[in-house]
Amino acid sequence: MCLCVLAARGLAECPAALFARGVELAEKGRTADALGVFRAVTEKDSTCLEGWNNRAALEAASGDLFGSQRSLSKALTVRRDVQSVAVNLEKLRSRMARLAYDSAFGTPSKLPALQLELQKDLGKNRRTKPSEDSDSLSRVLSMAQQEIRELTRVRDSLLSTGRVAMIESADAQAKAVEHPEPVRTSPPVEVKPLPPAPVAPVAPPPSAPKETESPESAALRAVQAWAAAWSAQNVDAYLGFYDPQFDVPDKISRKAWEDRRRERILAPKAIHVEVVSPLAKRTGPGTVEVVYKQVYQTEDVRLVLRKRIVLTKKGKEWKIVSEREAR
Prior knowledge:
By secondary structure, the chain is an alpha+beta fold. The chain contains eleven helices and four strands. The protein has helices spanning 3-12, 15-27, 31-44, 49-61, 65-78, 83-105, 132-160, 163-178, 215-231, 235-239, 254-266; strands at residues 272-284, 287-297, 302-314, 317-325. A four-stranded antiparallel sheet has the order 1-2-3-4. The chain is elongated, with a radius of gyration of 30 Å.
């Protein structure tokens, strides 16, 4: 039966029968028809939490993640403390965060359709305990406090890198130029000559230390400097770490890739990239592979994944020739 007929029939049926029809269609794999039914359910009864939840689940399975987010938000306006809605919302946020990272990193997303939990019974999530409102509020406050702690951690991390101090110093210098301090004159001070200091024997200059840094250590230093440039959103310095022969993803031109990276690095208000537990291994003459855990943080996204970077020595510098997600 086509979607328009189901929706038209749904408006004439009671919400319970309509809901049962939607569940039946969803279980048969008729996602589009089931979605039309649950849209009719929520239009008929905007307080039907189960209808909003199932509508969100089917929208996510169809690839409409933003529509799914709106439907789950509607479900939360009905009741905030239902476990199935909370679990679905967490799965949805995780998927959207991963897609946002893939977009920022410039890697194609090959993820299966998102499957959220369907409610099969109507009415079992109705409020039964008077204390549930206060429990829900406690959970919301706890989540807010957790977000504040995470933002504080990112701020402290930026402070530790000196980035905020650099900004404050630049502001102070700009103010000094705009509003210079008046020059104050003071009476001359009588300066008495000091007795001559004894002349110490001149020691011969120390010999220059020999370069003893291993290729692995030098490559690790390059990776840390690359992450620091990314965190500072210094795009020119960041791109300078890539070799001209870098293996550009998605089979696009180097210029198109650099333009995409520039846009995505400058888009967030702040970025923090942390290289955790790096392991370097020499894979050939002048070539080192570094595998590590990468923590990527913006004001909206926090993602952790394993990375593999291959660097080659060009003159005295180490350049990135390959960058992939490690399995």
